[in-house]
Structures are given as C-alpha cells and as structure tokens.
Write a structure and sequence with these properties.
The protein has 208 residues and is mostly helical. α5 packs antiparallel against α8. The chain is elongated and about 55 Å long. The N terminus is likely disordered.
Length: 208
C-alpha cells in the first residue's frame, strides 16, 4: 500500500491547509480539464476558477502533473466495497461502481489525459502508481479478507505471490478497456460474465 505522503497533495510549510480550498482547487482542475484539455490547462486557469492565488497552488503542488493526478485520485477514493453477502456480489458491485465513475466526464477526461502524458513522463507515471493504483488496491485486499472469512477463498498470503496485484490489474484493466477504449457498455450481463470468468480463474489458482 502507499505511504501517507502519497495520500495528500504536497506540503512545503506555511499556513495551515484548508480542506475547503483543496477541494475547490481539485474540482476546478477537473472542470478545466473537461473544458480545455490537458495541453491548454494552466495553473493560472485553475487558480482563477478556484478563487485562490496561483502561489497557493504552488505551495501545495509542484506543477500541473501532480495537481491533475491528485484531482483524479480523490474521485477513485469514492469507490467502496460494502459487504453484499458473497464474493460474487462484492465483485459485481465494485465493477458497477467503477464503471459508473468512468462514465463521468471529469473522470474520463482526467484519467485519459494523465495516462497519455505519463507515457512521456516517468515521475508522473510513478505518481499515478502511488496516488491512484496502490491506493485502490485496498479494495482487493478488503475483498479477499472478507471472502476468506466467509470460507469462499482459502487462507494464505495472496499478496506475497502477487495474486492481489494481478486481481487488481485484471479488474481495472478490463473495466477501463471496456468503458474507455472499446466504448462498450458495462451492463449487467457483461458484469455477470466478467465476474464468473474472474472467479473461475481464482478457483483454478487456488487449486494449482
């Protein structure tokens, strides 16, 4: 899992942080991305939309890359994994949530922008890993522990063999590809079939 330093925007001292100001800045960043796109987005534009000084942004973020990743990361923090009674229902529920999140214009635009830019920027790629990917693996860990407690999965250090990482990659990769690359609906039938396929793979892995 990521360290606490990757869970919040950069701090360099000075006056206490304002949660309200941070939220306004991140919301303004997403709005600007939808309207302007990555190439035209500037720190000055975000500051104007958020009603803060540009220096306020630079006290929190080193530049546009960090700011946009954090603006995306807080959206993914909305994902939850309530107990729906079975591993099947838990997986289906989080897949539906994830797909609904990707349908939102601010999520779609921001995520595709930072991923495209990260192909040319290794520090940006690392920030995506720590602020978004590692942070959301909490859902896989929670789901596995719950399924083990129910007796649906065998006990064992799945994370030590990379199984948790693989499960996350499969779920995230499939849903992102379906929703954003293929632009096909993540409907109830697709979710059911995908979940059955995933559970079949988990069962085979447990017996190997």
């Amino acid at each position: 899992m990521c360290s606490s330093s990757s869970r919040s925007p950069r701090r360099t001292g000075g006056r206490p942080r304002s949660v309200e100001a941070d939220a306004a800045i991140l919301e303004a960043t997403r709005a600007a991305l939808v309207e302007l796109g990555w190439s035209k987005l500037t720190m000055g534009d975000v500051a104007g939309r958020a009603g803060v000084a540009k220096t306020t942004l630079y006290r929190r973020w080193a530049g546009k890359n960090e700011l946009v990743v954090d603006a995306v990361a807080v959206l993914f923090d909305e994902l939850e994994l309530p107990d729906r009674g079975s591993l099947t229902a838990d997986i289906e529920g989080v897949v539906v949530q994830f797909a609904a999140l990707l349908e939102r214009p601010e999520t779609k635009t921001a995520l595709m922008a930072v991923v495209a830019e990260s192909t040319r920027d290794e520090p940006l790629r690392e920030r995506i890993r720590t602020s978004i990917v590692e942070r959301q693996k909490r859902l896989v860990l929670a789901g596995r522990r719950r399924a083990q407690a129910r007796g649906e999965l065998p006990e064992g250090p799945a994370s030590a063999t990379g199984t948790d990482d693989l499960i996350f990659d499969v779920i995230a990769g499939a849903v992102v590809h379906r929703a954003l690359v293929s632009a096909e609906p993540v409907d109830a039938e697709w979710v059911r079939r995908f979940t059955a396929l995933l559970l079949g793979g988990l069962s085979a892995a447990a017996q190997a």
